[in-house]
Design brief:
The structure holds two protein chains of two kinds. By secondary structure, chain A is α+β, with helices and mostly antiparallel strands. Chain A has two domains: 2-201 and 301-393, no CATH class; 205-297, no CATH class. Helix content of chain A is 26%, strand content 37%. Chain B is α+β, with helices and mostly antiparallel strands. Among the domains of chain B are: 87-238, GAF domain (Beta-Lactamase, 2-Layer Sandwich); 342-494, Histidine kinase-like ATPase, C-terminal domain (Heat Shock Protein 90, 2-Layer Sandwich), CATH 3.30.565. Chain B contains 13 helices and twelve strands. Classes of the chains: A alpha+beta, B alpha+beta.
Chain lengths: 394, 497
């Protein structure tokens, strides 16, 4: 397998597309490009950009997403276009698929449809991994994931990103082939000869006494300990609802909920998405009723420590020398928390995995990965405030 | 056993059992109470810890907010520094605003900006800056500004920075600003320069999460002030540049005029040289006749002349000699000036020339008892020169020194080498040359106005001839003197290879 990465920060979108493709192609010295990931900041999300890339790459399958900032080996970029080109050996198989117009009612069915489409043509092939790009605005995201897992297997490793909105259109953009799509999900299923390592960590620590979710539905938590859910934040921060809303940016970034998962050391984080006037809270992913929860707190140092741990975890599956490519899905909350230190996080990853390693990534609203990432056949969860690193070796 | 016996046995046992059970119950109750108390303690501890956790969260929140604000300020200050660096190098007014790019604004926490400057002659605001607005949006803003010129000028006159955080709705309503400028938060700051420029800088964001702080207002105020200063600098630069251009034009014009005048002077000089040359030629023929006939008469070849006639003829002869000398000098000068005399350059030893001239003038030296001090360094004696011409140079310089050095005085000759040149200094202890005359003495017919010159005859051509000869050799001649303290004439010649 060969991987080529091209980054362009040219302000002319089409020029940037051409430049990035040219740079990425340099590393593909044998065989043809088979698959491409395209990551862009919001302003580059235009069908013409994808058309240009697609034509330059002979219409190979393209997947990708827009993001507020790009992660590359060269740094974090708030404006730019990043292309990853893969050239596989004959022993590696893959299949791409996409579903559009997901809604509350059909999320499960759409997930199943996507899972089914991904499996198409992979019968009799050893299946390894699915990389998924989904729209954060998809209602019932957990159902959507359940749907996929129904088809590909509940313990089959999913590595995914729920992308955030583009600042201009306020809508997320996913890329599939030459199309820019919203309210959708797309992915690639890999099979055959492919080794990979996964690491997912957050760095938040529980604080205060455990509490119980007494009423919830999906990602909406109505009551905690029999009280309106918002009381949790009101108590801890000594603020009323209008004040909490005013400080929402800080609260959602700094103090997610941690769900205790039986048998797991790590808490599963849920970032606050909105505070409703009736006192209920909406989180970045599902919070099951009767869950034991804790308020979580982190510092920049603990976040960076978790980043190092996440990168180091991937090395337990593949040694650094054999890694061909690293894909990073990093939470936007971490981007906000780390502020001017975001590049330190990138440097830590490079320090662990190799400073010249081809690396690409995006900032996300939610990350999909197995919690016990070492045993990658474990159950996949939706994470918030986490950094998920996938390393691939041929 | 009788029933009563059984009862008698069992009753105490029963009583004992009851007592034991009672004791057990009491122990258990105590234990439960103890556990309850411990549970209460634990619960209380947990609640205490939770209270402490609340304090931690609140403190953490405050610290994070402060950290955020600090980060924002540092990023903003870096952005200001970059904008300052970018704009301060702009030397034209219309280039200043073009140097502000979306990345600068983004680091300040905004993605949209517009800037207007008031045009004094056209009496309207002119758009200078547009970041993040489409053509349609910016046209709408231009129309709004045009329709609210009075209010905008009042905003500028107030010299205050406003924002969606602080602005009162007195001048322009916040909501109206938000709609027109398509933003949720904004800051507007007047641009004021010392040179009279004035305008408005508007920055804004559509991000609903962005909260304008006083720190943001302060940063934008600094930016607007910087822009005002940069406009001043650009004005001053333009003014200086224009003045320099004018000066350069005037220098060019003067140079052109001077070149023309110089050409004219050269033309006149050539004419003068030609005139002097032809007149001298014309004078030489009759002078030769006068000289010849005078010699015949003086020799008595036409008979003995009376004493008085003899004396008059000798005067004629002497004056004719002087006139011939003047004519010869004039002819030499004009020949050298016109380039008709070619210097026969060859290596010569200056010691020989000096010795020869010294011999020639030894009589006069003795007569005035003047000491000739010749200190010629052997290493600086060999020069490339026309020997006969250099002899004339020494004759003239020695002659002048003799003429102006009083009896018992001293004339000294020294030499030394400077790079490829040999410098010769002829010094005397004479009356010296006033400073104002030191340049003019090399001009033709110039004589210093002093008592000695009034008593000593001279043509005023000697030094002019010397200068022409030295310059024809590629050398230079100059004099250093102080009235009353003698004079030193120095000249240079190329050293022989």
């Amino acid at each position: 397998m060969q991987v080529g990465i091209g980054l362009s920060i040219a302000s002319d979108y089409l020029k940037a597309a051409k430049e990035a493709v040219e740079k990425a192609r340099v590393n593909i010295t044998e065989g043809n490009a088979d698959l491409a990931f395209v990551f862009t900041t919001g302003e580059f999300g235009h069908p013409l950009v994808l058309k240009t890339i697609s034509e330059l790459l002979n219409n190979i399958p393209i997947l990708g997403a827009s993001t507020p900032a790009l992660i590359s080996n060269q740094g974090i970029f708030k404006h730019g276009l990043l292309i990853v080109i893969f050239s596989f050996t004959e022993e590696t198989y893959f299949n791409t698929a996409c579903v559009k117009d997901t809604s509350d009612k059909n999320a499960l069915a759409m997930g199943e449809e996507l899972g089914g489409k991904l499996l198409y043509g992979c019968k009799g092939v050893h299946r390894n991994l699915t990389i998924l790009f989904s729209d954060i605005t998809i209602p019932s995201r957990q159902n959507f994931i359940f749907g996929i897992q129904e088809k590909v297997g509940s313990s089959f490793p999913l590595f995914g990103a729920f992308t955030s909105h583009c600042p201009d259109t306020k809508k997320p953009l996913l890329y599939f082939g030459q199309q820019t799509i919203i309210n959708a999900g797309c992915g690639v299923l890999w099979g055959g000869k492919l080794n990979f390592g996964l690491g997912v960590k957050h760095g938040w620590q529980p604080l205060g006494k455990p509490r119980w979710v007494t009423k919830s539905s999906g990602s909406t938590v109505n009551e905690i300990d029999g009280q309106p859910a918002v009381n949790l934040y009101k108590d801890y921060l000594a603020q009323d609802i209008p004040e909490l809303k005013k400080e929402f940016k800080h609260i959602s970034t700094l103090y997610p909920l941690g769900i205790k998962i039986k048998g797991e050391k790590e808490y599963l984080l849920r970032g606050l998405s909105s505070i409703e006037n009736d006192g209920s809270l909406i989180f970045g992913a599902d919070v099951p009723q009767d869950s034991t929860i804790r308020l979580m707190i982190a510092s920049k140092e603990s976040c960076l420590k978790a980043t190092r741990q996440s990168a180091e975890t991937t090395l337990k599956s593949i040694p650094a020398a054999k890694i061909k490519f690293a894909l990073v899905f990093n939470s936007l909350a971490r981007y906000t928390l780390l502020g001017r230190q975001v590049n330190q996080e990138l440097n830590l990853i490079k320090e662990v995995l190799g400073k010249d390693l081809p690396l690409a990534g995006i900032y996300t609203c939610a990350e999909e990965a197995p919690l016990s990432s070492l045993n990658y056949l474990g159950k996949t969860y939706s994470h918030n405030n986490s950094i998920a690193i996938l390393t691939i070796a041929s | 056993m009788a029933t009563s016996d059984i009862i008698n046995i069992l009753f105490p046992l029963f009583i004992l059992t009851v007592i034991l059970l009672g004791m057990l119950v009491i122990v258990k109750i105590r234990r439960v109470k103890q556990l309850q108390s411990q549970t209460e303690e634990l619960k209380k501890s947990l609640d205490d810890m939770d209270e402490q956790a609340k304090l931690i969260v609140r403190t953490d929140m405050e610290l994070n907010k402060i950290q955020d604000e600090l980060d924002k300020k540092i990023t903003g200050l870096y952005a200001l520094q970059r904008i300052s660096r970018a704009t301060s190098t702009a030397l034209e007014e219309n280039q200043i605003f073009k140097r502000i790019n979306p990345e600068h604004l983004e680091d300040l926490g905004f993605e949209r900006a517009s800037g207007f400057l008031w045009h004094n002659e056209e009496k309207k605001f002119i758009l200078q800056l547009n970041v993040g607005y489409s053509e349609e949006e910016i046209n709408r803003i231009k129309i709004f500004i045009g329709a609210n010129e009075e209010r905008c000028l009042k905003l500028i006159a107030s010299e205050k920075t406003f924002s969606s955080l602080s602005q009162s709705d007195n001048l322009i309503a916040k909501e109206e600003m938000r709609n027109i400028f398509s933003v949720t938060s904004f800051i507007i700051s007047p641009i004021i320069s010392q040179q009279g420029n004035k305008g408005l800088l508007f920055v804004g964001t559509q991000n609903t999460e962005t909260l304008i702080t006083e720190g943001d207002e302060e940063l934008i105020k600094i930016l607007a002030t910087q822009l005002g200063q940069t406009l001043d600098n650009a004005h001053l630069f333009e003014k200086t540049w224009r003045a320099q251009q004018e000066l350069e034009d005037r220098v060019k014009e003067r140079t052109r005029e001077l070149t023309l005048a110089l050409e004219e002077v050269k033309k006149i000089s050539r004419r003068k040289t030609d005139f002097v040359s032809s007149v001298s030629h014309e004078l030489r023929t009759p002078l030769t006749s006068v000289k010849g006939y005078t010699a015949i008469l003086l020799a008595g070849k036409l008979g003995k002349l009376p004493q008085e006639a003899q004396e008059r003829l000798e005067k004629i002869n002497r004056h004719t000699d002087e006139l011939v000398h003047i004519v010869n000098d004039l002819l030499d000068i004009s020949r050298i000036e016109s380039g008709r005399v070619i210097m026969k350059l060859e290596p010569i030893d200056l010691r020989n020339t000096v010795a020869k001239v010294g011999d020639l003038l030894s009589g006069q030296l003795k007569e005035k008892n003047i000491y000739l001090d010749v200190i010629m360094k052997p290493s600086a004696c060999s020069v490339l020169a026309d020997n006969s011409q250099i002899e004339r140079v020494f004759i003239n310089l020695f002659g002048n020194a003799l003429k102006f050095t009083p009896a018992e005085g001293k004339i000294s000759i020294q030499n030394h080498k400077i790079d490829k040149m040999v410098q010769v200094d002829v010094s005397d202890t004479g009356c010296g040359i006033p400073k104002e005359a030191q340049e003019a003495i090399f001009e033709e017919f110039f004589r210093v106005d002093n008592a000695i010159n009034q008593g000593v005859k001279g043509t005023g051509l000697g030094l002019a001839l010397v200068k022409n000869i030295i310059e024809a050799h590629g050398g230079k001649i100059w004099v250093k003197s102080k009235a009353g303290s003698g004079a030193t004439f120095s000249f240079t010649l190329f050293a022989a290879p």
